[in-house]
Amino acid sequence: MAGKLFENNYGSWAVIVGSAEGLGEAFSTALAKRGINLIMIDNQADTLYALANKIEKDFKVETTKIHLDVSEPDAVTNIILEIQKVDCRLLIYNAAFSLIKPFVDLSEEELDKFVQVNAKAQLKLVQQFAKILIEKKQQGGILLMSSLAGLIGVQLVSSYAATKAFTWNLAEALYHELKPQGIDVLACIAGTTATPTFLKTKPAYGAIKPQIMTAEAVAESALQKLGRKALFIPGFSNRMNYFILTRLLPRRMAAAVANNAMLSMFKHKI
């Protein structure tokens, strides 16, 4: 979507939660290229400030930099205060807590963080953001990052997968509920993406290697699909695998295939 048309639909500012690295960096850059000013939120201060300064220099847009952990109790309130200062009508929720680790080895603190970052903060922020748009009678957009891991329960990422299933169900419901209010909602259900977080896990590939997309390709394709559908899986190979696992194979067999692949890639994490 061209810059001016994009701004007409979604305002001159966008807020990106989890904006400094990987997919967040890709979304920040893609929006800046469209001339959109950014409220950039991340828990990595140095990376956040460095990227924001680069974006301001390269694309001549404004940025508001907020060093914030969305698991903090007042995080959503602080974000909403910043949103209300400008013409911000696009929310991208990319923040995520993820670990590749046996479920029984997760600490209570880690379990809480899965819920707080991947579900609770997202849920509250989406509701507050939608309320602002509705009260002002403005159209806007909400883009939530999900994962193919949320489509089938997968070992070693059970809690992450469960929260990502929550995300795409939330987006699908809100796509229909908020559409009459002029608010576009999309869940981007990404497959394997070459982000720093994923690469640090050092996956071991066997005979079958998943399609690995760049963060830039995922972000750009998601922005192009916003307003056109509720759920979007970037990458032809990812969409084909989804079709095979959910339409052609029985659920039990599909789960076995997905779990065997995960175990093969991350056996060294056990």
What's this entry about, in short?
The chain is 51% helix and 15% strand. It is of the alpha/beta class and 270 residues long.
Can you characterise this structure?
The chain starts with a helix and ends with a helix. Helix 2 packs parallel to helix 3 (45-59). The chain is built from 10 helices and 7 strands. It has 270 residues and is of the alpha/beta class. It has helices at 3-10, 23-33, 45-59, 75-83, 108-136, 158-178, 196-199, 215-225, 236-248, 251-266; strands at 13-17, 37-42, 63-67, 88-93, 140-147, 183-190, 231-232. It has a single domain (3-269), classed as 3-Layer(aba) Sandwich (Rossmann fold), CATH 3.40.50. The radius of gyration is 18 Å and the shape is globular. It has a 7-stranded parallel sheet with strand order 3-2-1-4-5-6-7, sandwiched between helices.
Q: Low-confidence parts lasting 5 or more residues at pLDDT below 50?
A: none
Q: Please give the CATH class.
A: Alpha Beta
* CATH topology title: Rossmann fold
Q: Tally the structural domains.
A: 1
Radius of gyration, in Å, reads 18 Å
What is the first-to-last residue Cα distance?
A: 44 Å
Q: What structural class results from the helix and strand content?
A: alpha/beta
Instruction: Name the CATH superfamily assignment.
Output: NAD(P)-binding Rossmann-like Domain
Spatial shape:
globular
From the coordinates shown, what is the CATH architecture?
3-Layer(aba) Sandwich
Based on DSSP secondary structure assignment, what is the total number of beta strands? 7
